[in-house]
Amino acid sequence: MSALTLSSSSAATLRADAVVVGIAKSGSSGKGRAAKAAVALAPGAEAVDKAYGGKLAATLETLGASGGEGEVTKLPAPANGLKAPLVVAVGLGDAAGGQEPYDTEVLRRAAGAAARALAGNKKAAFALPVADAEAVAAVAEGALLGAYSFTAYRGKENEKDSKAKDASAPLAEIALVGAKPRDKAHKAAVERALVVAEEVHRARDLINTPANGLDPKTFAAEARAAAKAFGLTFEVLDEKALAKGGYGGILGVGNGSAQPPRLVRIGWSHPKAKKSLALVGKGITYDSGGISLKPAGHNETMKCDMSGAAAVLSAVVATARLGLRAKVTGWLALAENMPSGSATRPGDVLTMYSGKTVEVLNTDAEGRLVLADALTRAIEEEPDAIVDVATLTGAMVLALGNRTFGIMANDDAFRDALHEAADEAGEAAWPMPLPDHLRKGLESPVADLANVGERMGSGLLAGLFLKEFVPEGTPWAHLDIAGPAFNESGPFGYTPKGGTGSAVRTLVRLAERTAEGDVPLD
To answer: Rounded distance, CA 384 to CA 476, Å?
Structure first.
């Protein structure tokens, strides 16, 4: 994790490997074919501009910089006037036309893009617009999230060339120029950013770990270690306890694997908490599809099918570390979905922990089975609201793309509160309906429910299935993070390739709003 400091020094005098400034679009200069994009320097760049004799914007335009959001332009520092040898200009788009205030998510992404571009460096001074504590938080969080790499499985032979190793290492130290080291709001913003970023990194590390390094047992051990480190309560049900308790959904999914399933409970409760949240995460540490085997080309990244459980674990730990005045309990439904002689077959009927029976028509629709058991168990503790998080359906990716998760709920006000929390956290989300007419597709001739129905609207149908396990009167929401949980394309903003930690920040913001009494739970 990168170190982060607030600096009262000038960007020109701070010793660092690079100084980061912001630029925005400002129309165009010249005419006809000679016209080129014009840029405006964002607040914070004044000292750097002075070192260039007031010609930094013109120099960047000559180099082809446009100020487009996320664009990164590097140029050598002038011979005199700057301690840092490198200047990095990061685009802020049309944001405010070079004037404050800037949208916090724009700042977050810009800081992340700059941090990624500075991998391999020891220290960078970020002279981006930080007009208030919200801007300080955004720049700090973006830079910390952008300074990430997963190296746990890099072989030692690849480390012989130390220069090559350093080139991929995250930026080691981030100095925020213009922030106020003695300002309580600025300090609090940075402290929160450090906690949130560390927990997003925890989720990313878990998601990026291959299935032969993270099975249900080892995932539970990771959760136990986190609980011990930060003073959370911890319980785990192994396969024997699950069988004794009648958790037919979790066991039915895990039966085909040599690695038995687990159900983990991890909790934080502030002594002055007035409201309680239960968070339930799908934790399929590898999803082959089971007997309904996934085809080649669809199973290579299925180590990420535990992203929901990773998000829940990280969010609960962050809640504890931030000392939020709420009771937040996380439930991790952990299993590996594999084909074998003992695996659940299409057509089998499972008796769930709730007592309901489910005909399994497709063993690759397994996430809803483990979630249903965990939801039922979580609701026994009578939380004021419950949220499940899962990489549940490809249909949601088709509907919303790779960067937006869907929100379904049995309560419109609670769904809206979650959507607002996601927006405040900077995570793209969209409310989705739960149409009653689709419920008929879950009917089974032999059981209470089927685990799949008609193909059209299947992402919504999965939500309707989960709704069957939530009693009336309990606010519940379902986050389908199948799109943004694992980035298979190139990195962008503060988002790396691979595991992203999707939904962690939304859940933390929801917990904060719950502690503040700003979530409709009555």
So the answer is: 9
**How much is the average pLDDT of 269-286?**
97
State residue 95's pLDDT score.
56
The token duo for 321 is 């570390």
Q: Which residue has the tokens 């180099």?
A: 63
**pLDDT, tens digit, for every residue of 132-168?**
999 999 999 999 999 999 999 987 655 555 555 467 8
- What pairs with residue 332 in β-bridges? 264, 281
Structure tokens at 58: 């013109």
List the structure tokens of 491. 């990195």
- What is the distance between the alpha carbons of residues 169 and 118, in angstroms, rounded to a whole number? 9
The pLDDT tens digits for 14-58 are 999 999 999 999 866 555 545 567 899 999 999 999 999 999 999
Contact present, 263 and 377 (Cβ < 8 Å): yes
Give the active site residues. 294, 368
What does the DSSP 8-state code read for residue 438? G
Q: Per-residue DSSP letters for 296-338?
A: TTSSTTGGGGGHHHHHHHHHHHHHHHHT-SSEEEEEEEEEEE-
Sign of CA dihedral 181, 186, 187, 193: negative
How far is 234 from 382, CA to CA, in rounded Å? Answer: 18
